[in-house]
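Regression check, adenosine-5'-diphosphate case 269:
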Amino acid sequence: MTTEISQTATDLFERMRATNPLVQCITNYVAMNYAANVLLAAGASPAMVHTPEESGEFAAIAGALTVNIGTLSPNWVEGMIAAAKSANKAGTPWVLDPVAHFATGYRRDAVAALLKLKPTVIRGNASEIIALGGGQSAGQGVDSGDPVEQAEEAALGLAIAQGAIVAVTGEVDFVTDGKRSVRVAGGSDLMPKITATGCSLTALVGAYLAIAPDQAFEATVAALGNFAVAGEIAAKTANGPASFMTAFIDGLHRLDGATYAKNLRVNVL
Ligand SMILES: Nc1ncnc2c1ncn2[C@@H]1O[C@H](COP(=O)(O)OP(=O)(O)O)[C@@H](O)[C@H]1O
Ligand SMILES: Cc1ncsc1CCOP(=O)(O)O
Ligand SMILES: [Mg+2]
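Current build output:
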């Protein structure tokens, strides 16, 4: 059965690829190359622009901004804040990826400052979202130690408190805006074995937001669906994390609307 959200997600998939949206990615040193390749393969146009001298200026011309706190330093935090402020002023949607925000006081402070600037979407793994809701997570550094279901309550609370879309990723993803919630199934257990998979997904959420800023919930679901479908297909030919990475990039590039629609598994709650 094709639900309304699945149809909309497929339309957004087609539109994103046809539009080649410009996405400003402020991401970490680990993710920068992989995330840019993921966006190019998926059909978007990434630009890694982070320094405060230009991040605000660029956010005003980008289709969307994504901010990831993976490898922070004062200059980068300054660049993130300038970009988020400028995005808000220009009406540019933006995504926050709170990588391991619970690990140190410096990260906690950076995330608190960024949350005040009202991201359109918050995308994290289960441990990160549990901790953002004030709960005790089993996360170790950047890797999740919790199942997605355990983060759903925190995600709902965070979505309402922030007025944001919250996406919790893992074996089956959960997306909520506080009123509507869905689960997105698919992907592969090889995905968390490749560093920066989540960071790259955050960047791809930006690509979908850029083409549908007024449908942020649907855009987020469509982006997660893109990873779920491409990941599931790539896993069929992969022998391990390294060959999966190649198959995944190729798969993102080759994926068409009919295959996306056929394999997308969105469950409305
Ligand atoms: N066990 C799994 N099975 C299927 N897909 C997964 C699994 N774990 C993570 N993913 C997928 O990997 C991507 C990154 O999610 P996640 O690993 O939660 O992020 P992060 O890298 O930030 O910790 C998402 O598309 C998610 O659906
Ligand atoms: C390993 C590592 N260390 C700091 S950021 C980073 C990448 C994290 O990537 P992801 O959150 O997508 O697993
Ligand atoms: Mg992450």
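Comparison notes: The two ends are 15 Å apart (CA to CA). The beta strands are 22-26, 45-47, 64-68, 94-97, 121-125, 165-169, 173-176, 181-185, 265-268. No diff flagged against the previous build.
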